Amino acid sequence: MKHKKKRYFEIISIFMILIILLTSCQLNPFNESQKQTPEASQQSYPVAEIFFAVTIPEPLVNGDNLYLSVVDEVTGIPYNFENFLMHKGDELHYYAAIPFTLGSIIKYRYLQQSNITNIEDDFRDQPVRYRMYYVGGPGEVMDTVFGWVDSGSTIQTGRITGKVSDSSTRAGIPDILITAGGRQTISDSNGEFILEGMPEGNNNIVAYSIDGRYKPFQQGAIVAKGKRTPVSINLDPSSFVNVVFTVTLPSNSVPSAPVRIAGNLFQLGNSFGDLKGGVSNQYSQLPVLSPLPDGRFTYSIMLPSGMDIRYKYTMGDGFWNAEHSQGGEFKTRQLIVPESDIIVQDIVESWQSDSNAPIIFDVTVPENTPAGDRISIQFNPFEKTEPIEMWALGNNRWVYQLFGPFDYFDTLNYTYCRNDQCNLVLDPSGTGEPWSGTVSRSETPQNKQDAIYAWNWTTNYQITASQEPSSIPRVSSFWKGIEFLPINNQSWKDYVPAAVQAVKDIESNTLVISPTWSLTANNPMEFSLKPGVDLFGTDLNSLFKLVLDNEIRIVLFPSINIESSLSDWWSSSELTTDWWDNWFSRYRSYILYYADLSAQNSVDTLIIGGDWLLPSLPGGTLPDGSNSNPPADSASRWSSLTAEIRQHFSGKIFWAVNYPGGLADAPVLINELDGIYLLWSAPIADNQQTSVNDMKVQAGILLDNEIATFKSTFQKPIVIALAYPSISGTGMGCYQNSQGYCKDWMALNQPDPFIGNIEVNLEAQQDVYRAMFLAINERTWVDGIISRGFYIPLSLQDASASIFGKPTSNLIYHWFYSMNNN
User: Fold this and answer.
1) Nearest-CA neighbor of 262 among 354, 390, 348?
2) How far is the C-alpha of 21 from the C-alpha of 10, rounded, in Å?
3) What's the maximum distance between 2 C-alpha atoms anywhere in the chain?
4) Strand segments (E) across 152-288
5) Which of 723, 703, 707, 614 is nearest to 666 (CA)?
6) Best CA proximity match to 38, nearest among 105, 85, 86
7) Is 257 helix (H, G, I), strand (E, B) or coil?
């Protein structure tokens, strides 16, 4: 093996000499572009040549080619790319020398092209999103391809662990994008990170600040089979300058339509993740330009000097209605930000990619559409893409003019959305199925005029004031409020202000917020913030400020995002000593990330716990009841962890306990904490006809016989967090699927609820809440009431547990108001 590696590096040296000779003769045979190269905006920059050498897992079949594909994250990784042909050194080694603008951040991956194009994958058989390389001068990169999608690989791997720190303060830096070996992760609040599945040998690591606060960093790391390679990264802070973008639009631009700028930084709308349809930005996160008197548009922003900015102008997002060249190619511009303020003057050549004419979508929405709702349109050319805002005409009419691109499809499916939620248009046939329309591209202008028959789960039901008994007085520390559904959708950010106002309007003094990290794999465990799904700390800082400005107490209850069921995840985990060590390490990073955010933002209480953590506790069991074999010292690990949380966060710490079912498994660790957050969805009704008074009596029995005893055991405050869907028989606590099995209440949550044969019943939810409030009102030892499952984007009278826009919200308002004023 050593001889083979030595021979390989000798070959590479010869190739480099050949490349230098070739480029000195100004020969460049490598460019096999399939789309236009992202070009500089009226700027001319020096270039540097980068030598790429790659090892592939097995020889290519005769006639196949290997390409290095430079991707465009602003347009969308699957769309605007530039392919460079790799040249063969021997059967497993290929090379190419490619010139790039000095200061560029190159995002690329490898492709195998035969009858079809295969994207390289990582050690988990997942497509590589992109690798990164910083062009600081002439250089070389040596990469290893694991395999092609679904092909498997026998390449040996190791792990890279490290910490990203500020070079001047030595403080850890959170939310730094780390890439190496075709894999990506985000640093935690201490700047620490783990990259699993790194190929054996040399790997190029790039640390990239998503908002440009720090300059890019790059270095190599040699990974040994089965070993951990530690890396220390120190980043230099950036200096910022004012950049003014000014643009002239084509004559056929839509008057008064918002013109946006889409770019590769967080503040220019980049999510750094894969959103619907493979795009990386959502229209509502893109900055809007302001019109000038002369017809141009402008936008001013502070950007980091020296940063490689890729951007484009759009009347949609980075893909739909984005600018093109006169030849029809996508146009993504490049600006290397100078060291002083600059005015950039651009001209959009065209909004169109071909000769097909624009299509106007003109829709009339139902009269009962709430006045504050925003209507958008979602296109589905081959898969659903991110919705695009339509333009309000008044009188319930909205319009959007689509310029393209039309060269990706012949027929285009589409639907309309309320507040970017796109499963709500009812088909007028009465089937209850969502409606969608179809249009074909044409060189003749088209005007699609639609009238929405009805929005699903929006009715003419009028919420009226309910007469409730007066509440006993409660102290200011009593929690009365709402728990948001876990926030794991980028489009929700725009609707948080309205949701917070709705929380305030029902006299809440507490808002429980549940941000997420993603559990993406278990062997080895991978648990981190996933861009495009989980919110960055910057997003949460803005949310916290909004809540505090409304004088509402913030409680943080971090949650998880997982694609498979949690039961399957646990049952397929290795649960070895090394696995548990990794689990506790990753959970520590997770909870300290939110402890640090809580400390920085005047958060009152941090909630930990819940059923998903039970396997890690002393005597832990898996969801199927079997032994989870937690470490023998798990009790001391948890105790040490809670002590460490207190070092980061001086507020209160509660433990979440599910009820029914969780009391017996409650850990003695609660003795070291400040309170109990009881997740209550207990059955208090025998059937669908059980009266409010009978449900109140049953709730009182449970509270007195079980919860009061549980509280006295730990002598801690206890907050009751209610979750009851809006369905017939909700007080029975069982929501049956077609096979008769009970579903968890969360299965009914938007945006993709389980429906089955479930009957929406708004009054049933109101009645069970009435019973619970009446029971809790008689028990002064209860320290708070929270309504769980609040759906942030919009009010819906659906089957979910959300009380937003339902009669229950009015009932809650009465009780909360009474608690304030008695």
Assistant:
1) 348
2) 17
3) 91
4) 157-166, 176-180, 183-186, 192-199, 201-209, 217-223, 228-235, 240-248, 260-263
5) 614
6) 105
7) coil
Collect all residues with Cβ–Cβ distance below 8 Å to 708 and sequence separation of at least 6. Answer: 779, 781
Pairing of strands 217-223, 260-263: unpaired
Computed over every residue of the chain, the mean pLDDT equals 91
- Find, among 113, 124, 125, the residue nearest to 150 by Cα: 125
Ordered DSSP codes for 493-536: GGGHHHHHHHHHHTT--EEEE-BEEEEEEETTEEEE--TTTSPP
* Three-point CA angle 44, 49, 54, nearest 5°: 140
The answer to whether 234 and 176 have CB atoms below 8 angstroms apart is no
Q: What are phi and psi of 43, to 5 degrees?
A: -125, 150
The two three-digit tokens of residue 543, written as one number: 């949310």
Measure CA 558 to chain center.
14
Q: What is the 3-state secondary structure (H, E, C) of 429-459?
A: CCCCCECCEEEECCCCCEEEEEECCCECCCC
Q: In b/e form, how buried is each residue of 622-661, taking b as 16+ CB within 10 angstroms?
A: bbeeeebbbbeebbebbbebbeebbebbebebbbbbbbee
pLDDT per residue as tens digits for the range 178-233: 999 999 999 999 999 999 999 999 999 999 999 999 999 999 999 999 899 999 99
Q: Would you place residue 428 in the very low, low, confident or very high pLDDT band (cuts 50, 70, 90)?
A: confident
Q: What is the pLDDT of residues 259-306, one digit of tens each?
A: 999 999 999 999 999 999 999 999 999 999 999 999 999 999 999 999
The crossing angle, in degrees rounded to 10, of helices 762-777 and 692-702 is 50
Query: Please, are residues 41 and 346 in contact by the beta-carbon 8 Å criterion?
Result: yes
The DSSP 8-state label assigned to residue 665 in this structure reads T
pLDDT for residue 699: 97
Q: Read off the DSSP letter of residue 568.
A: H
Report pLDDT for 462. 56
Is residue 303 a contact partner of residue 265, using CB atoms and an 8 Å limit?
yes
Which of 345-355 are b and which e, b meaning 16 or more Cβ less than 10 Å from the residue's Cβ? ebebebbbbee
Q: Report d(CA 781, CA 480) in Å as an integer.
A: 14
Contacts of 730 (CB under 8 A, 6+ apart): 685, 724, 761, 764, 765, 768
Which one, of 175, 160, 46, lies nearest residue 100 by Cα?
46
Q: Above 50 in pLDDT, residue 35?
A: no
* CA triple 619-588-159, angle to 5 deg: 105
How, if at all, do strands 87-90 and 47-55 pair? Answer: unpaired
Which two tokens mark 213? 């606060």
Whole-prediction pTM value? 0.92
Q: Please report the pLDDT score of residue 452 as a whole number.
A: 94
User: 557 φ, ψ to 5°?
Assistant: -125, 80
Enter the DSSP assignment of 47.
Answer: E
Domains and CATH numbers, the chain: 2-155 (2.60.40.10), 240-347 (2.60.40.10), 364-451 (2.60.40), 479-821 (3.20.20.80)
Query: What token pair was written down for 169?
Result: 């303060």
Nearest to 338 by CA among 310, 307, 311, 312: 307
Q: Residue 334: which H helix or E strand, with range? A: strand 333-336
Residue of 786, 776, 796, 809 lying closest to 695 (CA atoms): 776
Contact predicate 775/703, CB 8 Å:
yes
Q: Alpha-carbon torsion 55, 57, 58, 64, what sign?
A: negative
- Helix H or strand E segment including 376: strand 375-380
